[in-house]
Amino acid sequence: MPQSKAVVLLSGGMDSTTTAAIAQSRGFDVHALSFRYGQRHALELEAARRVVERLGIRRHVTLDIDLRAFGGSALTGDTPVPKDTPAERIGQDIPATYVPARNTIFLSFALSWAEVLGAGDIFIGANALDYSGYPDCRPEYISAFERMANLATRAGVEGGRVIIHAPLIALSKRDIVLQGLALGLDFELTSTCYDPAPDGAACGRCDACLLRLKGFREAGIADPARYQAALA
Amino acid sequence: MPQSKAVVLLSGGMDSTTTAAIAQSRGFDVHALSFRYGQRHALELEAARRVVERLGIRRHVTLDIDLRAFGGSALTGDTPVPKDTPAERIGQDIPATYVPARNTIFLSFALSWAEVLGAGDIFIGANALDYSGYPDCRPEYISAFERMANLATRAGVEGGRVIIHAPLIALSKRDIVLQGLALGLDFELTSTCYDPAPDGAACGRCDACLLRLKGFREAGIADPARYQAALA
Lengths: 232, 232
Hints:
Two copies of one chain form a homodimer.
Chain A: E1 5-9, H1 14-25, E2 29-36, H2 43-55, E3 59-64, H3 102-117, E4 121-123, H4 139-152, H5 154-158, E5 163-165, H6 173-182, H7 207-219
Parallel strand pairs in A: 1-2, 1-4, 2-3, 4-5
């Protein structure tokens, strides 16, 4: 019996990489989808390519979409990436790195590709626990997208079913680290930092680095990522 | 008092042009959004530019997104555009010109721009009556997108409200013609045909032409569009 296909949103960070490994562990033939969306650096796309190679994913599409046309985020605009946010503040407000409707745009493209492939399963590494500041990482958002997706497509008309899987939605960063390691992932492949140095070393101070470091610390595991020397 | 901003999806066809005029008639400062998405021809983007100029719309963004990366539609791929569909068959099946999840992708970008602009209103010219073959033109789809959009964005978190307006959703093509004329539109500006000649003349035989011609005929008005000589 041929494997069922699934479209997996893959940024090359630890969450989406773990999600891709989970999709494979559930028996899916993973089709990875990445975006060149005007992010500050191309390192995460290089990480996505490394992950695709290491996991043996056979199809990987990288789409160009220019979210800079609208502006509005520290990840795509000229405002600085926030650094050294106190742990208790992370996730309390919508951060400057929030890209308006980004997950909706990414999931919409995933839906389009899934429909072309005849795939009913889409995976996203959204995580509500450590990123509750992003409105489009909450479980009620994922459910609402799934409901809309089932009305948007042939599946909805012809009796099929689209499922949006967000297997990390309720996990802590610690649990994501442990889950990824249990699946044999090498997190050295992944790129998490919002503002890495030109040589690829992570800053260790943006919200994404702080959450990643906290996850590894709480898991009692050394983070294999390379950090800038001053912070090592 | 400054006008409220609205994002209007504008393809340059008669439906989206009428929708833009309706948004203006309701007092909105229209921000028009078009896409270069791998469609067969650029004529509809030229039509969108003419409409923007004639309606005095001050901001118009055209985004490049390559839906051809996925294939799957006669509008973006190599399969032929169907011609001479009998009137009673149009809208009965999902047609070959359906682009998977296209409206979802377009509305997602509109949502992103609206959020950056601080706009709570998005207009789309979806029309269920004469295009019921497209799953993403049905009222229940539009409602589900709106519900998702309110969870996806700051508005949902901070108590704002996103409204997806589909003012043509229940209108016949005849009523759209009459509504557009009542708003002073010159439909000669608009481009509807899925498969026009190199000189821009409409084919008169694709589903979009057939529905447009039917609308004008039922309204008792001559269609000002230019059709290929053999069919005139």
